Amino acid sequence: MTDPRPPIAMLAELTHRCPLSCPYCSNPLELARQEAELDTETWAGVFAQAAALGVLQLHLSGGEPASRRDLEPLVRAAREAGLYTNLITSGIGLTERRLAALDAAGLDHVQLSLQGTDADMADRIGGYRGGFDRKMQVARWIGDIGFPLTLNAVPHRQNLHQLPRAIEMAVEMGARRIEVATVQFHGWALRNRDAMMPTREQAREADAIVAEARARLKGTLVIDYVPADYHSDYPKKCMGGWGSTGLVVAPDGAVMPCHAASSIPHLSFDNVRDTTLERTWYHGSAFNAYRGTDWMQEPCASCERKRVDFGGCRCQAMAIVGDPAATDPVCIKSPHRAALTAQADAHAAANAPLVHRTAPGKPVPDPVD
Amino acid sequence: MERDAVPYLPRGVRLHFDAVRDAWVLLAPERAISLDPVGHAVLSEIDGTRSFGAIADALAAAYDASPDQIESDAAGFLRALRDRRFLEVR
User: What distance in Å separates residue A292's CA from the closest CA in chain B?
Assistant: First the structure.
């Protein structure tokens, strides 16, 4: 295997705490408790190490990063380290005053999540009454300060009809970009496939809405699109290839190749409390587990697309096929594709109540299926 | 791009020297774009006050190149940045 290049991006999950409880939360089912979270000084040291390692983009996420009272000094430390700072937030917990402090600390960009385009939908999906109105207020403050804004919409079966309005809202808010990230079934979302799996028709409709809006809004709004992957022919190039471009630091300091990697039971993760980021990136066992192409089985090993999508998502192979080294079952070359198609159609036709995520330290509800 | 248009980098987009890779990059929301020496030269001239025409002329003089060629190359590069909202014009 060729030596890995330095990482470009780091996702810092500052906390798993969050006022919302979205049923597609990308946090793991086992949420880190507040007592386990890294302190300000440790995070600042991690940011400095990340910059020295080659990271350019720092995504400050959670949970809800605004649930950390030290968010402002954390942003300052990241900027002092030379990182580009992106705050990924629901907006809840941000006040006009805190946003001004984040501005003073040098925050570069805000990515604001959108659970729905009206209060009924957004507050039901987010599980937080009043959240939508609050978010709209926060969006106005963001605009007043002039932070560059990306709106992040997560379409799924229950809100996909709101996609055109979500795009319109992004333009109205002055966002330069919208991420249309169709729900990906990891973590909590895996519990919600019967409630959230889009139908195949919806997936095609979303493709068409995005294509039309991209052409119409060229130069006004950039649309980054993650299609509904159970309904695609080829898997997503997950993380740009395992251990190739980015790393994730969990609230407790565990360093992972992707935010869902803890769903692969045999992996063990280094911790920033014990070892350097550099050592973890180049020599950590979890990072080398699926790096490059040497680990691949057939049909990936002899596939002409093996460096295009790197076999897709390891966590999805684990979740659906039970083998993290298998071809992502979304791929039309996977022997499990036919079963996945049937499963996707069954989930899309099913009806189930939403299972909202819980708070750190609270028991995880039993799976419905 | 019109010669009298004044290009500028909007808030949240900045040039950054990447010491680890020994190269210039353009940092933008959730993106890092590696710059070749030409791209870096063009962006370094952008100060939010000078027109595109003045910038193209300066580059042509500095690199002893044909002004038409420089203007057309730079316009293509800047148009691509503008489409991605990494560059604005006033």
Answer: 21
User: What does the DSSP 8-state code read for residue B38?
Assistant: H
pLDDT in tens, A308-347: 999 999 999 999 999 999 999 999 999 999 999 999 999 9
Name the E strands within chain A.
9-13, 57-61, 84-89, 109-114, 149-153, 177-181, 222-226, 246-249, 255-256
B21 vs A54: CB contact, 8 Å cut-off? Answer: yes
Whether the CB-CB separation of A286 and A257 falls below 8 Å is answered with yes
Residues of B in contact with A56 (CB under 8 A): 16, 18, 25, 27, 32
Q: Given an 8 Å threshold on Cβ–Cβ distance, is B29 in contact with A52?
A: no
| C-beta atoms surrounding A268 within 10 Å | 10
Q: Does A265 touch chain B (CB under 8 A)?
A: no
What is the per-residue pLDDT for A367? 59
Model pLDDT for residues A147-187, shown as the tens digit of each residue? 999 999 999 999 999 999 999 999 999 999 999 999 999 98
Mean pLDDT in residue range A88-106: 98
Closest chain A residue to the Cα of B12, Cα to Cα: A108
In 10 A of CB A153, how many CB atoms? 24
Lowest mean pLDDT among A80-89, A200-209, A301-310, B62-71: B62-71
B22-56: b (≥16 Cβ within 10 Å) or e = eebbbbbbbbbbebeeebbbbbebbeeeeebbebb
